[in-house]
Amino acid sequence: MAVARRAVELGVTLIDTAYLYGGGANEELLADALHPYPDGLLVTTKVGVARSGPSGEWQLDGRPDVLRAQVEQALRRLRVERIELLQLHRIDPRTPLADQLGTLRDLGSEGKLGRIGLSEVTATELDEARKIVDIVSVQNRYNLVDREHEPVLEACEAAGIAFLPWRPVAAGASGARAEVAAVAAELGATATQVALAWLLGRSQVVLPIPGTARIDHLEENLAAAHLRLSPVHRDRLDRLGR
Predict the structure, then answer these.
(1) Full-model pTM
(2) Which of 20, 105, 184, 215: CA 20 to 30 A from 74?
(3) CATH for 2-139, among 3.40.710.10, 1.25.40.10, 3.20.20.100, 3.40.50.10730?
(4) Which residues are catalytic?
(5) How many CA atoms lie within 13 A of 134 on its CB side?
(6) DSSP labels for 114-143?
C-alpha cells in the first residue's frame, strides 16, 4: 500500500493489475490504498484467466459469462462504476475471439468499460481483434534482451496503439549482460534504469510497467525517465537484440 501511494505521489498515472493477481486480492489492495482515486490516475485491470480447470487450477477462460462476471467483480473490488481500460489477459483458444471481444464491447456499451486492450498477442491476432473492436493497448513481454514481440510493437506503432511491455527489466536479469552493466557504469546509473531508459526511447507508444514491492526500487525505476542514452549507447544496446 505504501508503494502504491508513493507511486502516485511521484506522478505515476497508470497502475496495472489483474484478477489473476491473487484472485482479485490485488485489486482490493489498490482500492484500499488509493480510493478515492486522484484525477488523472488510471487503474487498469485484466480478465480472462480463471480457476476453472478440472481441479480448480488457473487456466485461460474467455467464455462470455466468465468475462462478464470478472468485470462485475472488478468493478466492486476497485470501487468504480466504470473501468477505463480493461485488458483481455490472454486470448482463450477454446472460445471464438468474436465472443470474447464482443462481450467486452457489450460491457462498454453498458457503460461499464471505457477502452479495451489485449495481452500476449501476435501481430496477426491484433489485426483480427481490431476487426471486431477498437483496441487501444497491447501488453506483451518485451525488454532489452527479449524482443520476441518486436513485430507486435511495430504494429502498435503503425496504428498508434499503446504498447505496455511487461517484465520490462527482464526480472532484473538485464544487468547480467556485460554491455548493459558497462553502459550503466558510464552513465552513473543502474542496469535497471538503463533497461527502462532504453524502452522509453524505443518508441513513443511504449509505456513500461515495472513491478516492485519496495519504495527504493520504485524511486529507482522512476528516475529512469530522466536518464538520457546517447546515440552511441543506444546502438550498443540495440545490438543485444540482433
Answers:
(1) 0.94
(2) 215
(3) 3.20.20.100
(4) 21
(5) 9
(6) EEEEEES--HHHHHHHHTTS---EEE-B-B
